[in-house]
Amino acid sequence: MIxxxxxxxxxxxxLREPADAAARSAELAEHLxxxxxxxxxxxxxxxxxxxxxxxRWLAPRLPGHQHWVVHDRDADLLELAVExxxxxxxxxxxxxxxxxxxxxxxxxxSLIVASALLDLLTADExxxxxxxxxxxxxxxxxxxxxxxxxxxxxxxxxxxAAAFDAHQRRATAAGRLLGPDAVPAALEQLRGAxxxxxxxxxxxxxTQAGLIAAWFDGWVAAACxxxxxxxxxxxxxRERPPVAVTVDHADLLVLP
Length: 256
Prior knowledge:
9 helices
């Protein structure tokens, strides 16, 4: 099955922003800060940056004044990024197709970042993006790794998880998406650079019931899209979201 990319809604990004902020590796951000210039402004390019959440999380953790360039193909999300800039930073928005960026598009960058992006790329798109970024520090956050734990556990969990992972690896017009294979693929592409990988899991509990419900509904819907035979079996299951969820991700710091 070949599918097209879906648009990410501003409401979903706003709902998940606090969970993303809690999950990203503060250790890697601190390590990165020690390797960046302390004089002059930093030019930071945020690939697939959407509404600018990565900047709002990372900017206070880095030294000095910063100028952020947010790349995304969604003009509405870019408008939100400009309207809500990080503290002590300025923001420019660029309508960009991340899969077509070249080194010249990132000229002058002190740092390149991305969040929740790598698993949405094909192997060729990832290789091209990393080639365009070569020679610069990169912080690549919140890439899914294919592990989800639901509480309470139910018999259908494993089957839906497998179907969801297959959906993440689905064929698109551009090729097969990497999904949970994105981190190993990036590590292979980046051999020779200094690499640090840290876990960055979502740990969601009853205080985040709205996010759990939205995530769970999307998780099940994607699984059913991939495996339509599931649709009849999940009706009762879908009506009872879990009370807690752990969704494992990884953060990757690249220091050339």
